[in-house]
Write a structure and sequence with these properties.
Layout: H1 2-32, E1 40-43, H2 44-58, E2 66-69, E3 78-81, H3 83-99, E4 107-114, E5 118-125, H4 132-135, H5 146-150, H6 159-169, E6 173-177, E7 185-192
Parallel strand pairs: 2-4
Antiparallel strand pairs: 1-3, 4-5, 5-7, 6-7
Length: about 200
């Protein structure tokens, strides 16, 4: 039993280190280039669903702790871009929402049309929240919330900078909203829809 416990711990640590390496490599890639090379059509509903399932497994969440709000059918929102980068951006948003939720995880992920030509992927949590001063800094590379440091939430501070870089490379934007400390937050990735 002890051996299995140690093996599980080593596997989790190895996975965490691999994710950190992947994040740093992606941060370098997205920071160097203004546009996506060889974009393909990407179904937003497909990748958002995939990210929600992956995050629920990774964080061992119970049913209802992480959910899709009003799921949209496949094919409704299609964008041109790099699928792997978009998955990394969405996973970063969902992982952060779970990590910063504290002991009671309640995260909702929604996909919605913004006007005629854009789609928004919003991740809402009821966690530690963000002050207005911190909202201005959260997308900076290596920036970590002071409350996260106090609560010992693991992270490198590159995730949200990757989200913003991916958004810009795809002609979109990323932003955060919160009513303040202890009042949760919403992070949104807004992207242009495929004109066709």
């Amino acid at each position: 039993a002890t051996r299995h416990e140690l093996i599980d711990t080593m596997l989790e640590d190895s996975e965490r280190l691999q994710l950190t390496i992947d994040q740093i490599l992606l941060a370098g890639k997205t920071g160097d280039s203004r546009r996506v090379d060889n974009p393909t059509e990407v179904d937003v509903a497909d990748i958002v669903g995939e990210c929600v399932v992956l995050a629920a497994k990774r964080h061992h969440l119970a049913e209802g702790e992480l959910r899709l709000v009003d799921p949209v059918p496949g094919g409704e929102f299609v964008i041109k871009g790099d699928r792997d980068e978009l998955v990394a951006a969405i996973i970063n948003l969902v992982d952060n929402a779970v990590k910063y939720s504290g002991d009671r995880v309640k995260v909702g992920v929604a996909v919605a049309r913004i006007g005629a030509r854009r789609v928004a992927i919003s991740v809402r949590d009821q966690g530690i929240g963000i002050t207005s001063q911190e909202l201005k800094r959260v997308f900076r590379r290596f920036y970590r919330l002071p409350s996260a440091l106090q609560s010992r939430v693991r992270g490198t501070g590159v995730g949200l900078s990757i989200v913003r870089a991916v958004a810009r490379r795809h002609g979109g934007r990323a932003y955060a909203e919160s009513r303040g400390a202890g009042k949760g937050s919403t992070f949104t990735l807004e992207l242009p829809l495929n004109p066709s």
